[in-house]
Task: structure prediction
Amino acid sequence: MDRNLAASFRAARRLFPVTEKRRNITYFNSASTGPLSKPVKKALYDYYELTQYLEKSAIDRDAFAALDNIRSLGAGILGAAENEVGFGFSTTFGLNIAAFGLPLKKGDEVLLSDVEFPANVYPWLALRQNGIKVKMVKSVDKHFDIEIFKKSIGPKTRCLSLSFVQFFNGYKNDLEEIGKICRRKGLYFVVDGIQGCGVEAIDVKKCRIDIFSSGAQKWMLSPLGTGLFYVRKDLQKKIKMPFASWLGVDWKLNFSDLFHYDLPFFESARRFEMGTYPYAHVFAAKAALEMIATLGVKNIQRHNHELLDILIEYLQESGFYRVVSSLEEKHRSSILSFTCPEAKDIYKELVKARIIASFREGAIRISPHLFNDRNDISRLIQILKKAQGF
Ligand SMILES: Cc1ncc(COP(=O)(O)O)c(C=O)c1O
Result:
């Protein structure tokens, strides 16, 4: 990494209170929740300060400008056009646009992976009320397998909904290859992007994704209750409105003349956004996305993978720990999981040492982000070495 870039990462680290020495915390858990940075907290506080004495309407203009920024920053992160991206509240939000908006009918079939996070399962299971079938594609070694997927496609299959990165082992799906198959077979391709969005490079066009959804509370380092969704432009008018909002039409910020019921919905993904916006979170999400965009997703990805390389080398040489994540370059992500005989006990040792990680499916899950550095990894390795002796 060149010097200027390394300096930018060091400067970014200083913006995260979780990295302050006095807290004695080493945070490797962005796959669970991203910690808030000072600019994000400032955005929240500034809004709360203002809203004590200013009416909401006085802030509307700034908030709507911030929403435009979010859509545009989101488009940059996803490789989409600005009019294809909307502000959502969670991953679930966009997945529901897909499940209840796509023109699926009785007897149609939706494919999911059998190792999905439940957020990408329940919206589809709810479609059973409309006579739509949900079929799980069997995983191999706990990851989605393209050959089995191909064999699972039947005459009634209309859609595949899949994670960008699997939450428990960090397996990054080959979305480009899978997208090609979906397009060839005429399937809608929906992606739960939360475990990669903002941290693993993606191009929704190259991957031929129809709908992509991601909460921003993890890798995008934004507060809970914020997110992005993408709906491919030429699909926007074909899908049913799963819900409809008075803010899905253009008031041109004039909220004093509201008896117009004939306004058309926006000609953009914004038509799917919902009701009055949580302004504090809008300003915060903008600040968070600006940081990601400034450092650049590709640079963040490289930074994280380089940190994980050090850990992988130690784990492999330890003769005790076993990496369960795929180490094949195209399937690697910013999540690394490993295990060992008493993995749960070792995990407890990490908790005692104030190393924040997760325990998922029998493995310790480490998820470094832009604010972590080599010292954090050394600290982790030190504790793992000690724990090996227990
Ligand atoms: C793959 C995946 N999808 C979705 C979610 C969460 O969904 P939502 O943002 O709707 O709460 C998580 C984790 O919380 C996840 O790991």
